[in-house]
Amino acid sequence: MRPSTRDRLADVGLFLAAAGFSVLTADSVVVDPGLSPTLLAADQATGALACGALFLRRRWPVQLAVALLVAGTVSHFVTGATLAALYTVAVLRPPRTTGWLAVLAYAPVPVFLARAPDPGAEETDSALTYFALVAAALSWGLYVRSRRQLVASLRERAERAAEEARREAREGIAREMHDVLAHRLSLLSVHAGALEFHPDAPREEIRRAAGVVRDSAHQALEDLREVVGVLREPGGALRPQPVLADVARLVEEAREAGADVVTEWRVADPGAVPAAAGRTAYRVVQECLTNARKHAAGQRVTVRVAGEPGDGLAVEVRNRVPGAGEAAIPGGGNGLVGLAERVRLADGTLVHGRVGGDFRVEARIPWAA
Fold first, then answer.
1. What CATH number did the domain enclosing 334 receive?
2. What's the catalysed reaction (predicted)?
């Protein structure tokens, strides 16, 4: 992978810093009176090559650091490049590698102490300063590495949270699409079936059934258009969601479609039910009426809604199980699965199954006092 502009600028910055360090500290070099100008020039040339080699630090950080540490035992002018190389290893390589490199960097310490250096000598100050700078370069590199890992971890967590939020939003829209469209299309199927199997019905009844088919198809298209609009515009919102009081309208709509629905209400004030709990209860009844219309057409459906603050909201829907061979509208089989997930998201519970000759769905939804 080619280095970015930021990486190139960092490489140039370290090169200039290493070169500047070597130049600014040149006066503090303890020069042997017998050191020839040729050796001094060679030392300076070695330092220049070491600074230039820093442009290879990303490809071979450990090898470069080891080579500069060895060269640093005989040359002062590679010190700046050595510190930059040690910093690079601490940033780019695991702490274990940095630890082994620190051992190599401090290997001369026992030899230095064995010589019993004079505390006031200039050579002692230079050596102590060098070892302190090595410690600073390694420590700063480890700090930068840990900082980068923390930022990467936070970014990854933020991306996961954003993806989870998007997934939940998609699932929520999918649930709304299923609940609304399945209800509308099942109504359309029932009335279209009536027109197909009873072509000799009275004209008024045929006109009413055709009107329901037209209205249901139009409403289904409107609902689908709304959901697609929300998907295209993340900031969009669905129309005001139903509440518990809307269950009465839902039941009346089912009766107009020919369903035999009996309701039992034991909620003193449906308007007092929290919006989330009421919406969940509405979706339970809606899904159950849709399923009854699809799989138990003509069978009586009993809807019971009861509850009060503190005790929660209980919704039960029963219908007779049709006999074998009776026609049914095909379904995907995901309605009750999605319904259970919806109730679970509301911190409620849902059970369903056959009880004698009935199919029962019962949901319990929290209703805080």
1. 3.30.565.10
2. ATP + protein L-histidine = ADP + protein N-phospho-L-histidine
Question: Quick one: which of 274, 184, 192 has its CA closest to 223?
Answer: 184
Measured CA to CA, the distance from residue 329 to residue 292 in angstroms comes to 10
User: pTM for this structure?
Assistant: 0.51
Residues 134 and 247 in one domain: no
State the greatest distance between any 2 C-alpha atoms of the chain, in Å, as a whole number.
Answer: 125
Model pLDDT for residues 113-129, shown as the tens digit of each residue:
777 666 766 677 777 88
What is the domain count for the chain?
Answer: 2
Token pair of 10 as six digits? 């960092």
> 131-168 burial, b for 16+ CB within 10 Å, e for fewer?
eebbeebbeebbeebeeeeeeeeeeeeeeeeeeeeeee
Length of the chain, in residues: 369
Picking from 124, 159, 194, the residue at the C-terminal end of a domain is 159
Considering the chain, what is the average pLDDT of its residues? 80
Please identify, among 104, 137, 159, the residue that sits at the C-terminal boundary of a domain. 159
Which segment, 146-160, 173-187, 216-230, 315-329, is predicted with the most confidence on average? 146-160
Rounded to whole angstroms, the Cα distance separating 344 from 175 reads 13
Please answer whether residues 282 and 243 qualify as being in contact, where contact means their C-beta atoms are separated by less than 8 angstroms: yes
pLDDT at 39 over 90: no
Same domain, 111 and 253: no
